[in-house]
Amino acid sequence: MDEVVAEYIRRTVLKIPRDEIMGVLRKWGFLSETQLGAINFRQTKDSISQEVVQLCEENSADIKQAAILDIIYNNIYPNKRVWSVYQMKKTGEETDLFDFTNFKKKFKRRLQSALKNVTISFREYEDNAIWIRIAWGTPYTKPNQYKTSYVVYHSQTPYVFISVSVLKSNLPLLCQALVVASNYHDIREMELRSHCLNSLKDIVFKRYSQNFQTHYPKQEKNVATENVDVRIIQEDKSEKERIQRVNREVFGDGPQPKLEFAQYKLETMFKSDPKMDVLEKREPFRCLVKFSSPDLLESLKSLVPAGMADAPLSPLLTCIPQKARNYFKIRERKGVLPGSFVRP
Amino acid sequence: MEERKAYSRDGVLAHLEMLEAQAHELALKQEEKEQQEEKLAGLKARVQELRARRDELRAKLELQQKRLLEKGGAETHPEQPSARAVLEWKIKSVKALLQLFYLTGISGKLTKRGVCFCISTAYEGTYLESYYLDVLTKPEVQIQRHSVPIFIPLEQIAKKYLQTDIRRFLSVLSDHLNAYAARRYQADQLQERFSDRLEGTLQRNSLCNLLVFHYNVPSDGRSFLFTARLLYADPCCSLPTEAIISCTPDAPAALAEVAAAHSDAFRRAALHKAFDSFSKAEETQDEALISPPGSP
């Protein structure tokens, strides 16, 4: 077995938490049940990974299998990477009879015709998600298995999720191959980025906030009648209820998609008291406002009920899931354009 | 006077006595009479009282009887149905109407700013998923949010029909969704019920409009691998428009007929039903081989 492959497998196994290693290897399906049973999981992770490499040696693993193991790892732990969303466009309206075999063929052909030294691997999942792993080389060097990009694509949708850790220069090539293989004409990057892949999917596939008024209303969750002392009166009960209602209308009932940032690049004029004369030149005051949180939308949702902001919240904050973007450029409001002055 | 003197002395006193006695008697009688009259008056009053009480009780009794008869649904009292009964009837008929809509697949409910439509899908008697659309009516008809999967061409359909003919929009969308649900159901059934006959995995896509799978066909004691490639070019149809069945090169020529028959079956019947028919055909074939017709 190739040394590079052995080392790669060893490092991949090391990344997996000890308790999950068995599960991941099972999903991989490259080692037999007896082989898996032989692994001693009570030793250090270092030793475990050595054992796994040994077993892979017995089965003569090559780079293809190692690449699949890497895809499986990234599929189980996608939140370790930053994902960007790309949108593809096509002009025709015919039904797309997406053929996976055809897609793979076209993608490989397009990519390899431009750059021979790449390792391309595919894996299809139950939810119709296609994972593509590309290890990049250069025209003169073999593919570097540690310089990888991952693509997640759901067939017959216009959205592609790409995680490019390094070598941004290969991005146009990758995008072109995707467009050709999926029968689209154009692709552009959306201003939407996050670690949480599922939340990005929720946002662009519009899978969040799915509480619809049905004829058979779900039982209103009875607010648990806490053992509240009857002598305690809530002075602003009606106001609290109003806030809850407005919040619900804006954010919906369900859990919010998970984003970590919202970034606003301001190119607006600084508005100050003319007497203070802060800026002599009348030019836009460039400023970057960045909100960060482990779960940004949930924290925005709880701002008003927590009393930290007034309802209603600024539409710049609440439009994030609907507009499917968390990077904004705000320019000066021109003329009588109402409301949104956000330029894509 | 002397005669009268002697005469009246006996007579006058006696007379007086007599008169006195008479007066006394009269007085007594008078008293008695008065007492009697008093008593009578008293009794009369009592009678009045009792009569009044009797009338009262009678009226009460009548009322109670009336009520009892009412509850028993007596024909004798055709009164107005109570407001409560009317309301209950209304609710019942509305619920029945809603159930009817649910069965037809498209139902709607007015919301604050428009309508919330629910499109329910079903295939061959099995209810599948429901999809919702929140449609605003002001300032213009537009879809606020929905639970339609992203690979259904909702925007295309909306662009064509939403503004002009909302019924057509719903009907076309319902066709798309029902066909998709049906195709997916068939593919799932194939994977679940015939996994033993399939070789490898079933290749499908999001819309389930292209399926590729390999399956075994027994013939003459051996089993041959067939490859099926089903294309559903019509997005509103749950049966394939094309069914390309191919066998391995080493298969006997006779199997070409079987392939053609299979292709036909796939284009006419649901996927899992077509497979059912293959199994049955193979069984009868086996039986024919074991006990050829004409033999005892």
UniProtKB/TrEMBL annotation, chain A:
Give the stretches traversing the membrane: none
Q: Where in the cell is it found?
A: Chromosome, Centromere; Nucleus
Q: Which InterPro entries match?
A: CENP-NAC/CAD_complex, Chl4/mis15/CENP-N
Q: Name one GO cellular component term.
A: chromosome, centromeric region
- Keyword set for this entry? Centromere, Chromosome, Nucleus
What is the species of this protein? Anser cygnoides
Reply yes or no: does the keyword Nucleus apply: yes
Q: What is this protein called?
A: Centromere protein N
Gene Ontology biological process terms, A to Z = CENP-A containing chromatin assembly; chromosome segregation
Q: Where is the signal peptide?
A: none
Which family does the record assign? Belongs to the CENP-N/CHL4 family.
Major site of localization recorded for this protein: nucleus
Q: Name one Pfam family in it.
A: CENP-N
Automatic annotation (TrEMBL), chain B:
- UniProt keyword terms in alphabetical order: Centromere, Chromosome, Coiled coil, Nucleus
User: Domain of life of the organism in this record?
Assistant: Eukaryota
Q: To which protein family does this belong? A: Belongs to the CENP-O/MCM21 family.
What are the annotated GO cellular component locations?
A: Mis6-Sim4 complex; nucleus
Q: Which InterPro entries match?
A: CENP-O
Q: Which organism is it from?
A: Anser cygnoides (Swan goose)
Q: What protein name applies here?
A: Centromere protein O
Segments forming a coiled coil: 16-67
Q: Where in the cell is it found?
A: Chromosome, Centromere; Nucleus
